[in-house]
Amino acid sequence: xxxxxxxxxxxxxxxxxxxxxTISLLLxxxxxxxxxxxxxxxxxxxxxxxxxxNGMSFIGTVFTDINANDIYGIPYSLHSDQAIMKLVVFFNTxxxxxxxxxxxxxxxxxxxxxxxxxxxxxxxxxVDINNIISFIKEREIDFPIIHDPNNAIRTSMQxxxxxxxxxxxxxxxxxxxxxxxxxNSEQKAFIKYLEDTxxxxx
Length: 202
Hints:
This protein is of the alpha/beta class. It has helices at residues 2-47, 97-100, 103-112, 129-138, 152-157, 184-199, and strands at residues 67-69, 75-77, 85-91, 118-124, 145-147, 164-168, 174-179.
């Protein structure tokens, strides 16, 4: 009888130990999942230009107002720009050549769409303004380019990538934000998106 009680006590001790061990494993699994989710969020933050540093989406947020002179000294104000949509492009002349080839798209949009419907604004953070002037002259870019050598505009919006293409509505809310580098078919789709959005009066 005493032997049976001893076996029962031993079994209880083993059961309690296994139970605690199982709980410990489950907690470790949950902790690992939380760490994995945090890692995924961090990776998304690093690779997705639509996500702000606080994890929220840029889409629908109001773009910072711009009041500055372009590289030729002509004043520009985003708030005063009455176009239905705006294409804002951030770039540096030292960005990857393949990405910067999208300048053809920016130039095409500026030349094809009426400026009261869609305006195009470039923002370049090169320190040397002469580099910007050479860059746009070689490529015959004629839309306004704002010189932002101190990265004030990018910093105020906490933007992390360059070159970057942003579409704003007439209230300067962000409709679309993406890294530059569209291929030909993607550029055609982008033009179609602009045409469709403008036709809806957005």
